[in-house]
């Protein structure tokens, strides 16, 4: 199951290791689009409701992803130093953290679901269904965290195929359950749940494949079999995970809060029609985002193992090659969204009005050119995560998306509301490219080995090692 990511050509290794991860994550987003297509048959309100609920549900996922990234960075570094016992203990600690945090965050979102929907300017039927949808997916947050954990641990040991199998399997089952739970199956006494059935389908499908994932990790051939053993320096290892994970979560939180901001503005400018269009647009964007997360995961694991072996040149090359692959994927997706915006919106919201399609057409026309920059930035941030450096990308995104872009969007909306959403989308486009430029300039100056040395001190059994 384990793979040495320091062997062979960087370009070939990144492609062979990263492509299954990127494909698996992109397929997850594609299955979400299929899910949206099914919900779209229920009407514009249902699409808007799922968007409102999914936007909030993304925030707990950010925290879980931060813990997962922190754990993957530490595990991959220890794998690179052949410290399998310590790596397994870190994986056990991360598993416990993921479970506890998922229960706390999921419960909080479920309890305050209606208020969280109202924050996004949800109204009427879309608000009522959206809050019920959010309650279901929130109580099932532990299944989302569990799937992130098992696929993350498998990536850390250089295994790309099992994460692909788990993600594809989970999404395929999700789609099958969608048809049963959304529309019902009278022969078996299952009543139609409408859009809320999509939430139940996601939770149940993830649960099945979380169990399968743990079974895979428990196999005799696995170097990181789950168990009760925890790191000797429990507090220190916990803080090391948080040191990497918290800034990464803050970074993704800032990016996700941008969706919350534009959803609110879109609702005030164009009502349910604009929010339904944005729901389709953001689901299309997740194809790029999730694919980039796959390439970023490959960069994290490769840089983690290479930095542990002090292969600084390989760290740099792995970061740029993975970013190039992600940018190319983003460019292709952006052009598809631009050229086929009308058919795409008709596919997902066939009963939507002219206003909804006009909003979607404008979004695609402007933001089709943002995916290459957004995807490459996420991968470069993932490369830094591999050596435990997560504060730097957090600060970049905090300044760009949090302190500059979002205040500008609210100012624009207040001063030029009669101009619609064109200025909003143009501002998002410009900031994405400015952030990529900042990432690129700073990455060229990275001292990979020195940065890694501060993150993962030598374990007692490794003192005196040439590393």
Provide a short characterization of the protein structure.
The protein is mainly alpha-helical and 467 residues long. It has helices at 10-40, 44-80, 84-111, 113-118, 124-139, 141-156, 161-183, 195-217, 234-308, 312-339, 341-348, 354-367, 371-385, 391-415, 422-443, 448-455.
Describe this structure in words.
The chain has 467 residues and is an all-alpha fold. Helices cover 80% and strands 0% of the residues. The protein is built from 16 helices and no strands. It has helices spanning 10-40, 44-80, 84-111, 113-118, 124-139, 141-156, 161-183, 195-217, 234-308, 312-339, 341-348, 354-367, 371-385, 391-415, 422-443, 448-455. α10 runs antiparallel to α13 (371-385). The longest helix has 75 residues, at 234-308. It starts with 9 loop residues before the first helix and ends in a 12-residue tail after the last helix.
Helix content: over 70%
Give the C-alpha Rg: 22 Å
| Quaternary structure classification | single chain
Provide a count of the helices. Answer: 16
Distance between the termini: 25 Å
Shape: globular
């Amino acid at each position: 199951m384990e793979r040495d990511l320091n062997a062979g050509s960087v370009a070939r290794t990144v492609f062979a290791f990263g492509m299954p991860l990127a494909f698996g994550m992109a397929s997850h987003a594609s299955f979400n689009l299929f899910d949206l297509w099914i919900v779209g048959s229920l009407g514009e309100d249902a699409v808007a409701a799922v968007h409102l609920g999914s936007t909030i549900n993304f925030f707990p996922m950010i925290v879980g992803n931060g813990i997962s990234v922190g754990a993957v960075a530490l595990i991959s570094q220890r794998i690179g130093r052949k410290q399998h016992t310590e790596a397994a203990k870190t994986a056990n600690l991360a598993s416990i953290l993921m479970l506890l945090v998922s229960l706390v965050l999921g419960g909080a979102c479920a309890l305050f679901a209606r208020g969280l929907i109202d924050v996004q300017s949800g109204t009427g039927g879309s608000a009522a269904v959206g809050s019920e949808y959010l309650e279901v997916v929130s109580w099932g947050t532990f299944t989302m965290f569990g799937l992130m954990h098992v696929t993350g641990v498998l990536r850390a040991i250089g295994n790309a195929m099992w994460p692909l199998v788990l993600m594809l399997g989970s999404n395929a089952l999700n789609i099958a359950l969608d048809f049963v739970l959304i529309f019902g199956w009278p022969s078996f006494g299952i009543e139609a749940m409408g859009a809320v059935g999509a939430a139940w389908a996601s939770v149940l499908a993830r649960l099945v494949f979380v169990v399968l994932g743990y079974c895979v990790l428990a196999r005799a051939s696995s170097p990181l079999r789950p168990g009760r053993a925890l790191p000797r320096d429990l507090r220190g290892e916990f803080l090391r995970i948080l040191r990497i994970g918290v800034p990464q979560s803050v970074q993704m939180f800032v990016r996700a809060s941008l969706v919350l901001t534009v959803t609110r503005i879109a609702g005030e400018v164009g009502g349910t029609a604009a929010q339904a269009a944005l729901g389709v647009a953001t689901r299309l964007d997740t194809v790029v985002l999730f694919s980039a997360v796959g390439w970023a995961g490959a960069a994290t694991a490769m840089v983690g193992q290479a930095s542990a072996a002090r292969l600084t040149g390989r760290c740099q090359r792995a970061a740029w090659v993975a970013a190039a692959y992600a940018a190319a994927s983003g460019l292709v997706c952006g052009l598809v969204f631009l050229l086929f915006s009308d058919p795409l919106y008709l596919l997902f919201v066939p009963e939507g009005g002219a206003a909804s399609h006009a909003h979607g057409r404008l979004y695609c026309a402007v933001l089709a050119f943002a995916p290459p920059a957004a995807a490459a930035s996420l991968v470069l941030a993932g490369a830094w995560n591999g050596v435990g450096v997560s504060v730097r990308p957090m600060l970049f995104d905090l300044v760009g998306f949090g302190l500059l872009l979002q205040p500008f969007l609210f100012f624009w909306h207040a001063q030029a509301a009669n101009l619609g959403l064109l200025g909003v989308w143009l501002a998002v486009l410009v900031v994405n490219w400015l952030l990529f430029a900042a990432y690129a300039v700073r990455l060229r100056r990275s001292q990979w080995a020195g940065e890694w040395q501060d993150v993962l001190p030598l374990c007692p059994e490794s003192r005196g090692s040439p590393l």
